[in-house]
Design a protein that fits this description.
Blueprint: H1 3-20, E1 21-28, H2 30-34, H3 38-48, E2 51-58, H4 62-68, H5 78-85, E3 90-98, H6 100-108, H7 121-125, E4 134-136, H8 140-150, H9 164-168
Antiparallel strand pairs: 1-3, 1-4, 2-3
Helix pairs in contact: 4-5
The protein binds adenosine-5'-diphosphate.
């Protein structure tokens, strides 16, 4: 009998955690893939304590790239950017964790690698803005839209990692 309240407490605790979990869309662009930076980039998210819930290697069409970057269609670099994104394999991923949308952007660093802090992915691994190796959603709405654009719901995997109790307490 004494086990029942504990079990209920555990369940509630997990539910509280689940409510705080966020998901973000992260992509290693063709330059990052070609330069052999997949494991380096994935390991930074993994070591931080975020959980990989979807991953695939795809060559997006130009039309798909235009959809992904639709917000930037008035910018002078839009066409070149979409040509570039569709020029080779992209590693598309969804990462999950508390605050992963905002902090994922911190791990990535500023858009222009010449202004990204050392220690960030772009700061450490890229030089110019047109070849900045990685994309990350910039807010909760974008994350939702980008995950839906790149992945079907069945491609997202929900699971409990044994490390979670050591990451979140
Ligand atoms: P972020 O990728 O950091 O969210 P933006 O959404 O502003 O940045 O831009 C999307 C992508 O467009 C950038 O990651 C970069 O690849 C490209 N880009 C941004 N500004 C320029 C620029 N001035 N010249 C060329 N490419 C650019």
């Amino acid at each position: 009998l004494a086990a029942i309240p504990a079990a209920v407490y555990m369940l509630q605790d997990q539910e509280v955690h689940a409510a705080e979990m966020e998901r973000t869309f992260i992509a290693i662009k063709p330059d990052g893939v070609q330069r052999g930076l997949i494991s380096e980039i994935v390991s930074r998210f993994e070591r931080k304590g975020y959980k990989l819930v979807a991953i695939k290697l795809v060559v997006p069409s130009k039309q798909f790239a235009e959809k992904h970057y639709h917000d930037l269609k008035e910018r002078p670099f839009f066409n070149g950017l979409c040509d570039f994104l569709s020029s080779g394999p992209v590693l598309a991923m969804v990462w999950e964790g508390e605050g992963v949308i905002k902090y994922g952007r911190k791990l990535i660093g500023a858009t222009d690698p010449s202004k990204s802090e050392p220690g960030t992915i772009r700061g450490d691994l890229a030089v110019v803005v047109g070849r900045n190796i990685i994309h990350g959603s910039d807010g909760p709405e974008t994350a939702k839209d980008e995950i839906a654009l790149w992945f079907q719901p069945k491609e997202l995997v929900s699971y409990t990692s044994n490390e979670e109790k050591w990451i979140y307490g």
